[in-house]
Amino acid sequence: MANDYFSKENRSVGVYTRKPGTSSGEDSIKDLTPEQQSMLKTIAAKLSQEKDVGKLKQALQAIEARAPQADEKSRSLFEAQKQLLQHRIEELK
Fold it and tell me: How far is CA 63 from CA 1, 77, 79, in A?
């Protein structure tokens, strides 16, 4: 029965590969605690609504200034926030 529906002419397969050394961006999210992941999702939603590049650049500078002072647990959250901000700034350019 499966051969009737899944013939060579009637199938669709997508294969996605990445170049070595590149990541999807989700690797940094996996390192976060569940609380940090929910915070990051909230931040990402707010960033998607922001259209002022100047405000985004100020936020990026603030995170870059606070990141070296952060403890090891929250440093990965700062890095993820930094990546989100950089990505959003690039989208708006």
Answer: 58, 10, 9
